[in-house]
Amino acid sequence: MELTLNDIIKVHKKISDNVKWTETSFSNSISENLGIDIYFKFENRQFTGAFKVRGSYSKLLSLSENERKSGVVAMSAGNHAQGLAFISKKMNINSNIVMPEGTPFTKIRRTKNFGGNVIIKGENLNASYKHVQRLIKEKGFIEVHPYNDINVISGQGTISYEMLSDFNEIDVLLIPVGGGGLIAGCALAAKSMNKNIKVIGVESELYPSLTNKIFNKKIKCKGSTLAEGIAVSEIGDIPFSIIKKFVDDVVTVSDKSIERAIAMLAEHEKTVVEGAGAVGLAAILQNNEKFLGKKIGIVVCGGNIDSKVLSSILMRDLVRSGQVTTLSI
After folding, report:
1. What is the pLDDT of residues 28-86, one digit of tens each?
2. Residue 307, SS3 per DSSP
3. Do the Cβ atoms of 87 and 114 come closer than 8 Å?
4. Distance CA 314, CA 263 (A)
5. CA geometry: angle at 3 spanning 60 and 87, to 5°?
6. Which residues contact 232 (CB under 8 A, 6 or more apart)?
7. Which residues are within 8 A (CB) of 88 and not within 5 positions of it... i.e. 6 or more apart?
8. What is the secondary structure of 96-126 as a DSSP string?
9. Which helix (H) or strand (E) is 201 found in, with range?
């Protein structure tokens, strides 16, 4: 199946009952501060706090009645888990989420609260995914992959459809990159609606999976990053087949820039954003001259950040700006 803008528009109509048409807003304060016109797409304002509900809903709608009765399964340690659990409950579908050991309790609790059956298995996401494959064989569950699925990709593409329907004069679209589902769907929709728009992926410098794939590099993906939502070691084959046609470039950003972006969004936009959701603004903070004189669209993909992490980021930003002084004796 070759995905088209028309497919994405059809999906958008189907999912609109449970998915918000989130605001695309011009940021006067940040634009003035950086000397660049910046438009934010606030997906952190979805009910589950992130965009993932779009792709999950699109996938569930594609299932037959028998497949829905079988129940679904997914591997996730965060936003995909919550989005799938939420929409599965709405559709009376049994959802099973395999999470690795060490997943923060707040994410486990939120997933359970949304209606998901949480299974803690595996020391990392790869081990959890192996358990997903076992459950599919043993229980007959249907897999809802977080990014390597054409129906999931079409759901994520509805973000660009909304954004460019609201404002179609964007020169550059900055999109977070993890496994590639978000940027694949958004790039296809954006380029189909405005052939002159440039689409640039943004990755954590610790997880340059798309950089490796596009530029034939072998940088190791490892370490702890503020942008844990996009800490993915490999791009999915299905999204990459779309990415190579529609994405113009990819850049990486440091955790220092991500931290500054989270603090800036809190101060100027009064909005809570997780690390993955802040990478677009981080790219501008790190490469300001590259974007001067352009209208920039940024997908703020999620706002599910641990409150302790957020408080420490904001405190360090106050120290940097000279509003708080530390004294050690």
Report:
1. 999 999 999 999 999 999 999 999 999 999 999 999 999 999 999 999 878 999 999 99
2. helix
3. no
4. 6
5. 20
6. 147, 178, 179, 207, 209, 221
7. 56, 60, 72, 94, 95, 115, 116
8. EEEE-TT--HHHHHHHHHTT-EEEE--SSHH
9. strand 198-204
- Band of pLDDT at residue 318, cut at 50, 70 and 90: confident
- pLDDT over threshold 80, residue 102: no
Residues in Cβ contact with 327 at an 8 Å cutoff, skipping those fewer than 6 apart:
none
What is the identity of the amino acid at 187? A
- Is pTM, for the whole model, over 0.85? yes
pLDDT band at 126 (very low <50, low <70, confident <90, very high): confident
Q: What's the rounded Cα separation, in Å, for the pair 202 and 25?
A: 20
Query: φ, ψ for residue 27 (rounded to 5)?
Result: -95, 100
Tell me the C-alpha distance between 186 and 189, whole Å.
5
To 5 degrees, how large is the angle CA 169–CA 191–CA 228? 95
Task: Output the CA angle 13-15-16, nearest 5 degrees.
Answer: 65
Which secondary-structure segment (H or E) carries 244? helix 237-246
What DSSP designation does 146 have?
A: S
Q: What is the pLDDT of residues 249-286, one digit of tens each?
A: 999 999 999 999 999 999 999 999 999 999 999 999 99
